[in-house]
Every structure is written in structure tokens, then in C-alpha cells.
Design goal:
- It is a single chain.
- The chain has about 70 residues and is an alpha+beta fold.
- The chain has one domain.
- About 30% of the residues lie in helices and about 40% in strands.
- It has a 4-stranded antiparallel beta sheet.
- Strand 1 and strand 2 form a beta hairpin.
- The chain is globular, with a radius of gyration of 11 Å.
- The termini are far apart.
């Protein structure tokens, strides 16, 4: 079974943070990154995600997920 991959960048007070994480689904990946950074979801970002290959722009979806929680 292939994992979901989320990658991209977001702004922090120190500049851009580039990352790539894997999880069961998009929600698991977002939870993992949010655990590592309080800034994630509240600053400028560009994110791609997908099963096995992160080939879809998921920026808007992630922003909605973060704002809803």
C-alpha cells in the first residue's frame, strides 16, 4: 500500500520551511506537520500532495482543514 505524500513550503519567522512527509492520508500528514510547527497553516504556503507522488495542489484544502480545527 502506498502512503500519501505531502510536500511543499510554508513561511516561518526565519524564512521558508521546505518539507516532505508521508502518512496514511492528507489529514495524517497535516497533523504531523502541525505538530512540528505552530506556524503551519497560518502563513503563506504552497503544498502538493498525492498517493505515492505529490502531484496535486492541495494548498487550499489544507488551509480549510487548519482553519476548521
Amino acid at each position: 500500500m502506498m502512503n500519501y505524500v505531502l510536500c511543499g513550503w510554508y513561511e516561518t519567522e526565519f524564512g521558508l520551511e521546505v518539507f516532505e512527509v508521508e502518512g496514511l492520508d492528507l489529514e495524517a500528514c497535516v497533523t504531523q506537520v502541525r505538530h512540528d510547527s505552530d506556524d503551519f497553516g497560518h502563513t503563506d504556503m504552497e503544498l502538493n500532495g498525492g498517493v505515492g507522488t505529490p502531484d496535486y495542489d492541495v494548498t487550499s484544502k489544507v488551509i480549510k482543514m487548519v482553519c476548521a480545527s
